[in-house]
Amino acid sequence: MQELELNSFMQGLTRRNPGQPEFHQAVEEVAEKLIPFINENPKYLDAKILERMTEPDRTISFRVTWQDDEGNIRVNRGHRVQFNGAIGPYKGGLRFDKSVTLGTLKFLGFEQVLKNSLTTLPMGGAKGGSDFNPKGKTDGEIMRFCQAFMTELYRHIGKDTDVPAGDIGVGGREVSYMYGQYRRIANEFTGVLTGKNLAFGGSNARTEATGYGSVYFGREMLAVRGDDYNGKTAAVSGSGNVAQYTVEKLTQLGAKVLTMSDRGGFLHDPDGIDSEKLAHIQDLKNVQRVSLAEYATKYPNATYTKNARPWGVKVDLAFPSATQNELDENEAQTLIDNGCILVCEGANMPSTIGAIKIFEKNQIMYGPGKAANAGGVAISGLEMTQNSMRLQWSFEEVDAKLQDIMKKIHSKCQKYGQEDGWVDYVKGANIGGFVKVADAMIAYGVI
Ligand SMILES: NC(=O)C1=CN([C@@H]2O[C@H](COP(=O)(O)OP(=O)(O)OC[C@H]3O[C@@H](n4cnc5c(N)ncnc54)[C@H](O)[C@@H]3O)[C@@H](O)[C@H]2O)C=CC1
Ligand SMILES: O=C(O)CCC(=O)C(=O)O
């Protein structure tokens, strides 16, 4: 059997998936680390596992028709990419954002397969969403869109088939509207979505899990070098679900968070964003839904810089927690030049391939999203468990399980990514996530 070679593999993938640069990027980052491992393990080469794993099980696209407050008929496009179901029901979030394309969801679905495998729980990988732009929409419009979206999606999902959840633009409010519509159409009360309200089957700590989990992962990376968060400064990007709970946990564990951001720019508070200030940000973002610029009117020591990102601020730690490709090669170099020792990704693929190369060259602690932000989907997995048992565990029980899972993910990354004197977490996460899915696919035979 001829060995795999990165360039020709990527040429074939690009040819088969034209116009999907984010999907190409996500596969390239994985393939670069996996191909040498596959060539050393011919069972994966012979079974063409990488070729099979980069082709989704299926993609579903559909029209979503809804009415705005003025009575105008609006049309969006919805998708669900059921990427790989070898180790469990498809699982992964829904993104509502004007930038969403099938290519975006294929990159996210591909990452999700490896991430879900790393959690140790039985979950396949999927992602879905729509090019619907929630910005400026009223509550009634959001509800009607969510109901219209679920009216088609419901026939493709199920508690043992595919269990969606939130992502950018989809939080507790949207999950509730979608769950209500599913229940109405299917006439069943099952755990078909996660991130639900605590009143109807949600799990304690799911809201906090991605941000907390990312900080727990960072704590494990620091512990390898005998270090911790105490007294360190941090830059966080984003101001949504993941960013908010990253800031909360970092602060609780002794770090001082200096930045957050949104689509319009970034906030720099040299005094640190403490719990009172974070509560103000949560009001601005979750209730008023306005720009972070408002923060500076209440806390005048802070500045809001328009159309810029936070990576030029001198910090010890960086937690990119907004979106993909929000940290490039030059910004990575600036972080390193300013003494940053750890980058831990709350977002999916926030660092460009060039940025990752800079982190690797400098051998800093770099936790890629598929490992560092896996706490969110892990607690979604535990929400499914609780729904099956018709039980609800306490916040403390779930948080303890989250900490344990993040430790196990870290250990798996170490096992496959230990190099001479440092840990290559990208290699560790990619191989660690791959092996379980690949072995299941081989066991199934040629399907
Ligand atoms: N919610 C979850 O449980 C999980 C989320 N993630 C990832 O974390 C990231 C953030 O997601 P959430 O906090 O859930 O979403 P969210 O909708 O609550 O917040 C998104 C944040 O990112 C910012 N943002 C979005 N697009 C941007 C752009 N193009 N440029 C600059 N800023 C932008 C928004 O202003 C907002 O602050 C995403 O990459 C998502 O895929 C990863 C694992 C689980
Ligand atoms: O909780 C889930 O199922 C989705 C989480 C997710 O979309 C992600 O990990 O990127």
TrEMBL record:
InterPro entries tied to this protein: Aminoacid_DH-like_N_sf, Glu/Leu/Phe/Val/Trp_DH, Glu/Leu/Phe/Val/Trp_DH_C, Glu/Leu/Phe/Val/Trp_DH_dimer, Glu/Leu/Phe/Val_DH_AS, Glu_DH, Glu_Leu_Phe_Val_DH, NAD(P)-bd_dom_sf
GO molecular function: glutamate dehydrogenase (NADP+) activity; nucleotide binding
GO CC entries: cytosol
SMART domains per the UniProt record, alphabetical: ELFV_dehydrog
Subunit structure as annotated in this protein's UniProt entry: Homohexamer.
Signal peptide annotation: none
Classification via Pfam families: ELFV_dehydrog, ELFV_dehydrog_N
Residue intervals of the Glutamate/phenylalanine/leucine/valine/L-tryptophan dehydrogenase C-terminal domain: 203-445
Site (Important for catalysis): 167
Family: Belongs to the Glu/Leu/Phe/Val dehydrogenases family.
PROSITE patterns in the cross-refs: GLFV_DEHYDROGENASE
Residues at the catalytic site: 127 (proton donor)
Entry keyword ATP-binding: no
CDD domains in alphabetical order: NAD_bind_2_Glu_DH
Name the record gives this protein: Glutamate dehydrogenase
Binding of NAD(+), residues: 210, 241
Binding residue positions for substrate: 91, 112, 115, 166, 380
Keywords: NAD, Nucleotide-binding, Oxidoreductase
GO aspect biological process, one term: glutamate biosynthetic process
Oxidoreductase in keyword set: yes
Region (Disordered): 1-20
